[in-house]
Hints:
Blueprint (H helix, E strand, L loop, with lengths): L4 E5 L5 H10 L4 E5 L4 H7 L10 E7 L7 E6 H15 L4 E4 L6 H13 L4 E2 L7 H8 L7 E5 L1 H10 L1 H9 L3 E4 L6 H9 L4 E7 L4 E5 L2 E2 L4 E5 L2 E5 L6 E2 L8 E2 L2 E10 L5 E6 L4 E3 L2 E3 L1 H8 L5 E11 L3 E10 L8 H9 L10 E4 L13 H16 L1
Parallel strand pairs: 1-2, 5-6, 5-7, 7-8, 8-9, 21-22
Antiparallel strand pairs: 3-4, 4-14, 9-10, 10-11, 12-13, 13-16, 15-16, 16-17, 18-19, 20-21
Amino acid sequence: MTRPLRALPARSELMLEALAAALDGSGPALLPLPPEPSRVLAEMRPDEPLEHDDIAVVVPTSGSTGQAKGVLLTSAALTASAVATAAHLGGQGQWLLAIPATHVGGLQVLVRSLLAGTAPAIMPAGPFTPAGFVQASALLRADRRYVSLVPTQLRRLVHNGGPAALDALRSFDTVLLGGAAASCSLLSAARDAGVRVVTTYGMSETAGGCVYDGAPLDGVRVSIQDGLIRLAGPVLASGYRLRPDLQALREGVFTTSDLGVLEPDGVLRVLGRADDMIVTGGEKVAPLAVEAALEQHPWVAEAGVVALPDAEWGQRVLACVVPVPSLPPVGLGELRDHVAMTLPRSWAPRAVLVYDALPMLSSGKLDRRALRLEASTRAGEMDT
Length: 384
């Protein structure tokens, strides 16, 4: 008999109970719904049979490409991820749910809570605020406490939350940080304040983060082929809802759209999405690596790197920088020299624009499209 698929609002008080039944097989598979569910319902079609009877959850996601997909996750994959996370963190604990359960990061908080036998604390409804985070953190009672955040949330807490938010952050044994690349300055500020941050890399297709601080979780295998990161192990999804044509998951390996390198010690370094690469003068430039290099300069608080058309070079590397307000400005030459200390000089930016804040997506990722459009306009005004 084909297993039914139940659509349920992610903030429903029934969510945890429904997820438990989906995981142990006593209830239907679960489709978590966002506040405005019409598009998800139309694309995931819960009235149609599931592809496999062992599917526990269908996670709706647009991925990094904007193409709508429903990631098919089994109970085994979700459980393997949660068990490996607990082992990596040093034991089970109580979790704060700060990310919507429609996202795999939030869903995994609920799975980990079920396996630990603890009730998660839940953020108040509405936009994320430091006050709400402090309020929800105070509800935790277990000896070991965990939370998953995206960089935008951590940035608000560290830079705008005040002493109460920092005290709340320091109360967690681990703050998992994923969903987007975090700036070096943000990580340094959080860790200097005593926050125990662990960066994660993963996606819905890997049941959430599967590489912590560059090291794969138990059972996860990382490889690089043609520059692309490939992931394997028990955490992998089984495919995509109603999309057998999508081929990213094949023969037990998920080929991501992200570029990366494995350091000699086996640590994974993510260079960014392949389609974000800049080609200038025949050289391929990874914006994420240039951003990280720029953020190591004392004057740079945040950096976003995009490409602009260039008649001579094909594309020009442009750095969009949020400076540290208390420091005097520096010139393009100094920033180019700084980048060239750790990366090829051809990767160094050929122009710099100063910003008060960079455009961000709700997921916490840099909105490169918006930045590219705005930077192109500003650069054009400078050239006229």
